[in-house]
Amino acid sequence: MVEDLETSLFLEYARRKMAFEYDNEEVGELAVKILSTLIERNEAIPDETLALILGISATEIRRVLHVMHKAGLVGLIRESTDQYRYEYKWFINKDFIRKFLIQHINDVAAKLMRRINTLSTTTLYICPTCFRSYTLDEVYEYDFRCPRDDTELVQADAPSEIAFLTSTVKNLRREETG
User: Fold this and answer.
1) Where is each HTH TFE/IIEalpha-type domain found (predicted)?
2) Which of 4, 7, 37, 163 keeps 20 to 30 A from 148, CA to CA?
3) CA distances from 65 to 40, 46, 96 (A)
């Protein structure tokens, strides 16, 4: 399967997210196989069919699909098969991937904007070892030493960091609209 940049970013995000969620790299790889199959087929597919295609138990496929659905990585539709039964089908398409990536970009940009706001309104100190930041009140409380690793805290270079983060947010916004 030839992947475009959006698809490869999406698959890499999914692989890492699922591997982290289960603390297991194999689950991350299984998630990529499932997503790749859904992308290649470009149709909604029942979990039992995915299990047959991939040669993996339907229970394992379902377990991963439900976590991916909760994380917004796959969509789910319910179709009536007869009067009393429903079939659940999983899907993903290019529009879905694009919307997911735009939402992710917006989330990252919002976090960066909060950091810019904090840097603009508060004096921050950074631990050069663990990179945690502390307010001036906290620094006085900790006697200018990191409470985690006892390293001397240094004042953040707010103007440089604000300039860098502002540039990063602009680049993210450009990617979002591009």
Assistant:
1) 6-98
2) 163
3) 17, 11, 15
Give which of 44, 151, 153, 3 is closest to 15, Cα–Cα: 3
Rounded to a whole number of angstroms, the distance between the first and last alpha carbons of the chain is 24
**Pair 54, 64: CB distance under 8 Å:** no
Residue 46 clears pLDDT 90, i.e. is over it: yes
Residue 152 to residue 53: CA distance in whole angstroms? 56
pLDDT tens, position by position, 54-75: 999 999 999 999 999 988 889 9
Dump pLDDT digits (tens) for 143-160. Answer: 999 999 999 999 999 999
Which helix (H) or strand (E) segment holds residue 47: the answer is helix 47-54
pLDDT 10s digits, 73-109? 899 998 887 777 888 899 987 788 888 888 888 999 9
CATH of domain 5-92: 1.10.10.10
pLDDT of residue 3: 65
The amino acid present at 165, given as its one-letter code, is L
What are 76's strand-pairing partners?
90
Torsion, CA 64, CA 65, CA 70, CA 71, rounded to 10: 70
